[in-house]
Amino acid sequence: AQSVAQPEDQVNVAEGNPLTVKCTYSVSGNPYLFWYVQYPNRGLQFLLKYITGDNLVKGSYGFEAEFNKSQTSFHLKKPSALVSDSALYFCAVSPLTGGGNKLTFGTGTQLKVEL
Amino acid sequence: DVKVTQSSRYLVKRTGEKVFLECVQDMDHENMFWYRQDPGLGLRLIYFSYDVKMKEKGDIPEGYSVSREKKERFSLILESASTNQTSMYLCASSFFPWGTGGAGNEQFFGPGTRLTVL
Questions:
Q1: Can you say how many angstroms the Cα of residue B91 is from the centroid of all Cα atoms in its chain?
Q2: Pick from B107, B113, B106, B117: which is nearest to B6 by CA?
Q3: What end-to-end distance do the CA atoms of chain B give, in Å?
Q4: Which band of pLDDT confidence, cut at 50, 70 and 90, is reported for residue A50?
Q5: Interface test with B, best of A101, A102, A103, A105 (most B CBs within 10 A)
Q6: Cross-strand bridge partners of residue A37
Q7: How does DSSP classify residue A46?
């Protein structure tokens, strides 16, 4: 069975500083990996995904994530944080084969960007 | 843009009531999903459907059932609501046609229904 770990419940960053939200995964075989963001009282919005190819994936709002197979990680990054990036972030994984389109989500990381 | 709508944003029900949560998507997606979201637990899959009248249990199906009579509509049913079903319920859909690759397609989420069972 697949699983996702987001080791930090909350990450605090000053505006303008780089941010990293961590994610590690466990899945049989090769993974599909996703990041979603949830603003208060809203559903989840898709940010980016890794399927195959380049390990550095670029997504919406200036976010990017790096797939590291040896460390089974898919950390979300942004070079310069904005206050408007404050939200709840979820990492998710799906196996390349045999999983259909089912996703397993992490428990979420609350990002707080302060002035 | 894909649009996934849910029938209610907020719902308050009594213990023992039968509760229907409705979800509609407008992009002809094959897959539809129901999740519940609880603090510290993330999203957990309740049921999903990959075609009309087809359904499969997710990780936490106990106390829930689903119905998919039309491709665009996926309903979650709480047969007899209990206080431990107080939660945020999220519906999602994705493009996943049979016989083609699609496991890497992203899911599109509705705004959620915050259900309180008293």
A1: 4
A2: B113
A3: 37
A4: very high
A5: A101
A6: A45, A89
A7: E
